[in-house]
Each structure stands twice: as structure tokens, then as C-alpha cells.
Amino acid sequence: MRTRIKICCVASIDEAQLAIAAGADALGLVAAMPSGPGVIPDARIAQIAAWTPPPVSTFLLTAETTAARIAGHIAATQPTTVQIVSHIDLHELAELARLLPHVKRVQVIHVEGDDALGLIPAYAPHVHAFLLDSGRPCGAVPELGGTGRTHDWGISARFVRASPVPVFLAGGLDAGNIAAALRQVRPYGIDLCSRVRTDGHLDIMKLALLTSAVREADALLYAEG
Fold first, then answer.
1. Which residue, among 122, 204, 214, has the nearest Cα to 168 in the 3D structure?
2. What is the pLDDT of residues 120-172, one digit of tens each?
3. So where are the chain's domains?
4. How many CB atoms lie within 10 A of CB 151?
5. What is the rounded average pLDDT of the residues 97-113?
6. Which residues lie below 8 Å from residue 116, measured CB to CB, with a gap of 6+?
7. What mean pLDDT value characterizes the chain?
8. CA-based diameter of the chain, in Å?
9. Overall fold of domain 4-224
10. Cβ within 8 Å of residue 2, ≥6 positions away
């Protein structure tokens, strides 16, 4: 199995080109958030999404929490996928699926403890994938991604085994720890932001080192069966 690579916090078409050249399967485009890096205007998200060639996917990261507002955000930016960064009401997810059945839905789960596992049966019927991150949505200033922190990969591994849909792993991944993360968690894909950047800009050398480490880890895991 090949680990899919999603490069998040893409800020321009130039960065999108760098990410795709390095082997990205998906680009993350961050809309307005209460905190965190990589936020760009909706007009630029729409521009990058329109430019991105298939089969590369474009993920709109939205902090909206109702089906109507999420659908409006999608209409304004035209991504292939929406990444919902808050834990939202299940009725809203079901309504979003009814409103926009053609847009893939990815639900972020912020892994703060074992209670993350209890969200699988609730959310899974309404989404195409999960993304496990290290945010703190209930903090004084909500953190909904881009923290650069790892979380408990033991919980993530259990989540992957229990999930009926694919799972992406995010949070503090870099060339130094990616092999251990893939070996322990076995995610469908990984999500990268802060650790492949220097001074806020996508760093092609860091990205190349990480993607190379992913492919080496994939080959080893495949050989081991």
C-alpha cells in the first residue's frame, strides 16, 4: 500500500506546484480559523483549486459548523473535498451529505484521549475519511490544526484499525519520525504543514526528505507484509 501525502497550508499556486512536483496527492487550503498557520482568503483558495490538475485533490479546511454555511463555503471555493476541522453536530453532517453528495467529506478528530475512538461509529456513516490531528478545540482560543505537535499514536493506531473509512494522520510529522508513525499507525495518508516549512514558506528540501522517507518506509512495510 502506498501512503497518500497531503500538503496542507498551501498558500499560492507556486507552492501548489512545488507540492505536486514533490509527489503530493492532495493540497490543503486553509480558510479563516480562530488560530493556526496558513490562512488565505477564499478568493485565493478558489484560484488554487481551479488551477490544480487532476488527479490531485484540493481540500478546503473550513471552521464552519452548519451544513448551510459549509455548503456556501464550498460553493465559493470549489474544492474537490471539504475538511471539517471542528467536531460538529451529526445532523449537520447528514444534511451536508444531502446538499452536496458529490463533494468528499473529511472529518477531523482531535486526539486528546481515548474518547476519540467513541466518535468513529457516530461520524463514519456521514464521511469519506477521517483526519487525526493534535488540536485542542475546547481551549480558550480553539486550536483546530497546524499545531506542529504529535499526539498519542497508540490511540491513532487503534482508531485506524476500528475505522471503516480511510484515516489520515496529522500532527508534528517530519522526516525524523515518519517511519515510526507509519509503522505504528498504518494510516491511509499523512497530512503535513509546519514541519515542511521554513519561516512560513514551503521548503522544498524538507519536503523532498520527508517524501523520500515515506516511500522508504512504505517499501519496508510492504516487504515485511
1. 214
2. 999 999 999 999 987 666 655 666 566 667 789 999 999 999 999 999 999 88
3. 4-224
4. 21
5. 93
6. 109, 110, 132, 155, 159
7. 92
8. 47
9. TIM Barrel (3.20.20)
10. 218
